Amino acid sequence: MIGKAGDQIYLSLIIPAFNEEARIQKNLGWILNFLKSQSYSSEIIIVDDGSQDRTVEVVRQIAQGNSQLRILRNNENLGKGGAVQVGMREAKGRYLFFFDADLSVPIETLPAFLAELENHCDVAIGTRQKAGARIEVHQPFYRELMGKTYTRLSNWILNLGVSDFTCGFKGFRGDVARDLFSRQRLKNWSFDAEILYLARLKGYRIQEIPVTWRDDRGSKVRLWRDVISSFFGLVQIRLYHLSGRYQ
């Protein structure tokens, strides 16, 4: 692996956060301990998306003793896609990842993704739907059903053939991430589908990697509103393409 002292930052981790006061300290500690055991240089970028609790204060306290950790703050809630885009634009790494603050996919998953990005693909995305994936704690039935329905709709509208759009663990080669996220238009939950659609348009190699996944009941999804906006987001993606806005 590349990323010794003095080199470009090897790995950037972008974590969108919205009202994560209750769990961000524990999960950041877990991530920092994992990174200490790795040989490469890294940075963690927390993007606070207009939290109304003590998320920012908690992260700033941790950052005082960790130069690799920094926090960016949106003055208003842009949506998960908007928060991720802010972090991706600021990241300096050779490889860029984003994942959820709840660590529903363990941080120990990183090495397998990095190996694929180093050798085989431009975009590596987690999947809960392929052989080798393991669900340790399931979502409520209705949320699993809606997730599968959204995946079918996404593949029907966007013609991508992806098994899991919404797994919150995705990695990119740095130059690819900067290209894709500079073209991103959507700020809501449809941004995952938009980024993968852009990757396919640009001819980037996408690899799905089975993950271990554990549901966290502290999800910030506002179910019906987000489901409806995500569906219309899929239509927007096609319209943006047809109108040339992804050029």
What does this molecule look like?
With 247 residues, this protein is of the alpha/beta class. It is 41% helix and 19% strand. The chain is built from eight helices and nine strands. The strands form two sheets. A seven-stranded mixed sheet has the order 3-2-1-4-7-5-8, sandwiched between helices. Strands 6-9 form a two-stranded parallel sheet. Strand 1 (11-17), helix 1 and strand 2 (42-49) form a beta-alpha-beta unit. Helix 5 (141-158) runs parallel beside helix 8 (223-242). The protein starts with 10 loop residues before the first strand and ends in a 5-residue tail after the last helix.
The helix content is 40-55%
Major sheet, described briefly?
7 strands, mixed
Poorly predicted segments:
1-6
**Based on helices, strands and strand pairing, what is the structural class?**
alpha/beta
What value does the average pLDDT take? Answer: 91
Count of β-strands: 9
- Could you tell me the strand content as a percent range? 15-25%
Q: What series of H and E elements makes up the topology?
A: EHEHEHEHEEHEHHEEH
Radius of gyration: 17 Å
- What shape does the CA trace take? globular
Count every helix, treating DSSP H or I runs of 4 or more residues as helices.
Answer: 8
Distance between the termini: 34 Å
Strands across the major sheet, in which order?
A: 3-2-1-4-7-5-8
